[in-house]
Each structure stands twice: as structure tokens, then as C-alpha cells.
Amino acid sequence: MAVNINTVYTTVLYILNKEQRGYIPPAEFNSLAVQVQNDIFDSYFPDGNQVNRLNQSNRQNDTEFFDMFKDISYKLFPFEKETAFTWNAANEGFIYTGTKTIYKLGEIIATTPASQTGQPAQYESVVQLTSKSDYTEITKSKLTAPTAQYPICFTTQTAAAIAPATTPQLLIKVSPASATTTLAVNCLFKPTDPSWGFTVGTLGQYVYNSATSVDFELDTSEQNNLVIEILKYAGIIIKDPQIVQAAAQASQQEEINLKR
């Protein structure tokens, strides 16, 4: 469940204005909101790696609702989706035609029709992701040449943007592959940028507009983190070291509590 952006913004403004310490206009708040959401999202991966080490040494609580590794995985579930990549003849590879930004690629499944493999039915196989140099070396060798049962791939970019995109797209080169092969990739997408939408009132004030706003896509448990981290940046903007220090201490204490 998402975090309401208006709740976060009003909380930040309340804390800043309690002692008349400053004000963050919507444009600046939206910039901070994007930065902080990305910071928190990026932190899941080193945190998950650290907790996984505790699992390996059997030093982590794995009871229901107290398993930290499961909690982090749960926060990532909304961003994980199996996505079809489309064959693009001009680039001789598979491209992603969606609008969201891919953060990481997971398992890649190629489905090859029976006419291409000689099998009685279509064949599904896991595609091994390699580097470009390994791909070239493997495909050039007769002994290690990939087959429909054991395909390989590497990632690059299209030479140019393909409509409706305005920039070059992620391209997956598979060997062997053709226009009759389909590719399904388990992708992890970056969260959509949050935005506090508004209209201007009769007195020139900013009035929250839910219709044009975009909420944080992070789990509701991150609401406190969002407020604290935005306050840290806000303190730098309004040049108030006390706000920066207080927010940093709160953030540090919460991190210590999570990693005990």
C-alpha cells in the first residue's frame, strides 16, 4: 500500500513551521521526495544482503512478522513483474516497450516454437545472462555454441530510440533467437516519481490536488523514514543545522533498531 504524499508533506511542513524554522515550497518538496524515495529503495539491497548473512549464520529471527529478510522482500514485491520483451528486427534483439524504468533483471525465459527446435511442442528454457565478451567467446566456439535448450544473452542499448520512447531502450541479445521466439523477463522496476499536485487558491496559497498528485510507491511502513529523510535535506536547504542533526539522529536510531 502506498504512502499518501499529502500526509508526508503536511507533516514535514508542520515540523518545520512549529518554531518558524522555514518553509519548503511544492517544487522543492517534490524534488526531495523523488530523491528520498530513491534513497530508501536503493537501501533495500545492501540491507537485504546484510540480513541474508545473518540468515546464513542462523543469527536472525525468522518467526512470523519478525523475519527482516522477508520484510525487505515484501517491500519489493510491488515492483517485481514478469515482462514480455518484444522482438525488434532492426536491432536483432528483444526490447522493453513499457514506460517504467527497469532497475534489475531477474530470470529470463525464452519460449521457442516447435518448428525451430524440432520438438513436438514449444520449448521453454532459462536464458543465461553473460557479459558481452563472454557472449562473443561462447557463440564463436563450436563446442560451447548455445542451443535452443541452452541459450545465452547479454544486455545493451538500441542504436536509437524506438517510438514511443524518446531515448535508446534496453536491448537483450539472445543466441540463438529469431522473431518467432518470445522472451519473458522477471524485472524489478524503479518506483514512479512522487509528486504533490496543487492548485493556487484565491489568496495565492497552494491547495492540495489529489487528482494531479502521485503518492509514494513505498510500503506504508516507510512513512516515518520518508518524513525524517526529507527533513534532513530540508534542513540543508534552509540552512538549519539543528533540523539536520535531529533528523539524522532519528534516522540513525531507527536504523540501529532495525539491524540489532
Poorly predicted segments? none
Q: How many domains make up the coordinates?
A: 2
Write down the secondary-structure element order. HHHEEEHEEHEEEEEHH
User: What would the principal axes of the Cα set say about the shape?
Assistant: elongated
Which class do the helix and strand fractions yield?
Answer: alpha+beta
Assess the beta-strand content as a share of residues: 15-25%
Mean pLDDT across the residues is 85
Give the % helix.
25-40%
DSSP helix count?
7
Would you count the extended β strands for me? 10
Q: What is the radius of gyration?
A: 24 Å
Largest sheet entry? 8 strands, mixed
Amino- and carboxy-terminal Cα gap: 26 Å
Q: How are the strands of the largest sheet arranged?
A: 4-3-8-1-2-7-6-5
Quick overview:
With 260 residues, the chain is α+β, with helices and mostly antiparallel strands. The chain has helices at 5-17, 26-56, 68-76, 114-117, 132-140, 223-237, 241-259, and strands at residues 80-88, 93-95, 102-112, 123-126, 128-129, 152-157, 170-175, 182-189, 198-200, 206-208. The protein is built from 7 helices and 10 strands.
